[in-house]
UniProtKB/TrEMBL annotation:
Residues 100-225 form the SusD-like N-terminal domain. It comes from Parabacteroides distasonis. Keywords: Cell outer membrane, Lipoprotein, Membrane, Signal. The keyword Signal applies. CDD domains: SusD (cd08977). This is SusD family outer membrane lipoprotein NanU. It holds the Pfam family SusD-like_3. It is found in: Cell outer membrane.
Amino acid sequence: MKKIFITFMAAVSLLTFNRCTSLDMEPVSSISDANYWKSSDQFKAFNTGLHSLLRLRSYNIFVLGEPRADIYGDQPFGGEATQGVERYPYNTINAEFTGISNFGDFYETINQLNLMIRKTNETTLLDENEKNYFLGEAYGMRAYIYFHLLRSWGDVILVTEPTLGNELDISHLEKAASPASEVMDQIKKDIDASVNAFGSDYSYKYGKGYWSKSATLILKGEVYLWSGRQMGGGTGDYSTAKAALQDLQQNGNLKLQDKFTDVFAYGNKENSEIIFAFKSIKDEFTMWKDYNWRNNMVPQREYMANYCDESGTPFMEIPGYNFHGLMRYQVKKDHYWKTFRENDSRLTGTLKAVYQKQEDGSIKYIAPFAYKFQGTTLEGSNERNWLDDYPIYRYADALLLLAEAKALLGEDPSTEINAVRERAYGSEYFNAHKNEVAYPNDKGSFYNDNPFEGGDENVMEAILKERLREFFFEGKRWYDLRRFGNQYVLKYTTAQESRLLWPINEDALTNNPALKQTPGY
């Protein structure tokens, strides 16, 4: 197994998550199975490496979970070429242009998780608490990755034992995919193993950039809602989801931030709302890896000199405005007016409106751009550095998943929906306008012919609406529509019912004859 460590531990030495470790590491070339796994520090280092590997897939996680929905699809207002990403909102991915190749490269991380699980189960070096915490993390992360694979490809290859080599090349494994039902069974087994390993430990032992029992519980809620709605689990699965989410609610030591923008603020990382996030750290990792956020979501500085904000102030004259990047994902311009109600703080906390001055002195609305993650300006830099943490799970998500479980069980979801809405509008406004914005009163002409959301008359529309407003850019919307059912996918996106899963790239099929192309492609 020597090769397993050569590349992996080299990465660990570079990606420490800013944690100090007192590892007495041997040269990478000498690391092997024979001289590793000999101390608690080595297990800790490997655990850090696992989280670093998963973080490397953050952009793929976004792509699988959001762009095929209804958020993007307009041409970039600055004139950039979209370079193929327009195929996601247009849903024109196919066997030639799959968008994501080699199953998102998730199997490399799965292979290392398999190794961690085996070695942790075998070791006698660790005390029981430390051993169980590592196992809770590893089983939970493996379930999380397989859940992405299940939702994106359906039938996928199941591998639960480590293989030789420094990575698991699924295209050369020559193993057939397992049915989606078996993949779901494995996900649930791993979730149970994670919950049991964590036991009564609800701590965030290594910080919220690491997996925890809370992360497993919200994953459990989401998984059982999916299996209940999409795989025939029904009421029993909804009840299991509800119980997991209530366990999290009671024991996770979580609460909503008072202000929506505080959740994402650079100076407020690992706050009370965050359950699990990918950490960005100077000289180590920026959002979505290698400037992927900057090079997909941020306007270019040069052309912003031609535009102004809603007050008519040119962007280049706004104090602190030093955004500089490349726009390939253009948010649909109508989201600015048709998604958020008046006085919903999530509008300006999510999108920045771009205007252009006209000859008569008036200003004309052009388009919005992503404004949820604003980065920071480091000392000595003249532009923004995208060092925000990227949330995977947060407490608002848990509340709305719980609302969904309750609604499916015929129970009242008002408490959870309105907790999220009250934070969005502010307590004073919310309490004074409950007859307009509190569930189930948010309805009326605003939703007539609205292309993105519906009124509170339908509880599922109410929950979907709240999730759209809350989770822009967090990789949720496509998965949400898929979970709620094909009728919502077809209503709100351009997708065809026969092509809701993702195609497999040609190289993977050629190199692994046991793999079959996804139905529909």
